[in-house]
């Protein structure tokens, strides 16, 4: 199995030994999954961590019965529900593919074995968890200090194809505004 894209992303976090690459290659499974497939459904315990080779996913929870979009994931990103996967707790989130996607996944027990056996696996774990924390901090900062138009612009910069993949109501949910407000923002930008 060719894992060059995954190795490229991981080696950007931590140099990888050949023995770690071989061990990881034995544990990874490649899947071609359809649009709308759930990588995780609440309240299940997360059994897999994923790497999106090609595709797009989002995570959401329900707040007062309404779907609240929490995060987006695109090609080259690691997708995991950290608390559920590592602490073995029921997830409160859903992770859903928004287009046909090519993903790699690793089982929980295999990931733990790699963490126990390879120092670079622990370094990668710390980097990934820090990335999740930083994404959360940036999102909180943006919600507090940027207006909706600025948040929308920043989202489009981060995910250039997002409007072709994600329904407008989901974009509005992520931005913390009503779908009608998002329509007005798009008109203001000349993209209605």
Strands, total number: 8
Helices and strands, in N-to-C order? HHEEEEEEHEEHHHHHH
Query: How much β-strand is present in the residues?
Result: 15-25%
What is the class of the domain at 4-118 in the CATH system?
Mainly Beta
Q: How would you name the CATH homologous superfamily of the domain at 4-118?
A: Jelly Rolls
From the 3D structure, determine the CATH topology of the domain at 4-118. Jelly Rolls
> Judging by the overall fold, what is the CATH architecture of the domain at 4-118?
Sandwich
User: In angstroms, what is the radius of gyration?
Assistant: 18 Å
Q: How does the helix and strand content classify structurally?
A: alpha+beta
Q: Approximately how much helix is present in the residues?
A: 40-55%
Task: Report on the architecture of this protein.
- The chain is α+β, with helices and mostly antiparallel strands.
- The chain has a domain at 4-118: Jelly Rolls (Sandwich).
- 49% of the residues lie in helices and 23% in strands.
- It contains 9 helices and 8 strands.
- It has helices at residues 4-11, 18-27, 82-87, 108-117, 119-145, 148-158, 162-165, 168-175, 179-188, and strands spanning 29-33, 38-40, 48-54, 56-63, 66-74, 78-79, 94-97, 101-107.
- The strands form 2 sheets. The chain has a 4-stranded antiparallel sheet. A 4-stranded antiparallel sheet has the order 2-7-4-5.
- Strand 4 (56-63) and strand 5 form a beta hairpin.
- The longest helix is centred in the last third of the chain and has 27 residues, at 119-145.
- It is elongated and about 55 Å long.
- The termini are far apart.
- The mean pLDDT is 95.
């Amino acid at each position: 199995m060719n894992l060059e894209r995954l190795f490229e992303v991981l080696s950007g976090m931590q140099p990888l030994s050949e023995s770690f690459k071989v061990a990881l290659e034995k544990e990874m499974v490649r899947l071609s999954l359809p649009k709308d497939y759930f990588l995780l459904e609440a309240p299940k315990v997360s059994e897999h961590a994923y790497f999106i080779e090609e595709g797009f996913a989002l995570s959401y929870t329900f707040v007062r019965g309404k779907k609240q979009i929490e995060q987006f994931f695109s090609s080259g990103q690691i997708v995991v529900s950290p608390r559920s996967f590592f602490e073995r707790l029921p997830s409160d989130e859903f992770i859903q593919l928004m287009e046909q996607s090519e993903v790699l996944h690793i089982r929980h027990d295999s990931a733990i074995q790699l963490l126990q056996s390879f120092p670079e696996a622990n370094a990668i774990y710390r980097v990934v968890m820090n990335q999740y924390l930083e994404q959360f901090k940036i999102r909180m900062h943006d919600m507090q200090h940027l207006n909706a138009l600025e948040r929308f612009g920043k989202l489009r910069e981060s995910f250039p194809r997002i409007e072709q993949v994600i329904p407008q109501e989901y974009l509005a949910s992520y931005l913390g505004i009503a779908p009608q407000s998002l329509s007005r923002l798009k008109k203001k930008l000349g993209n209605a």
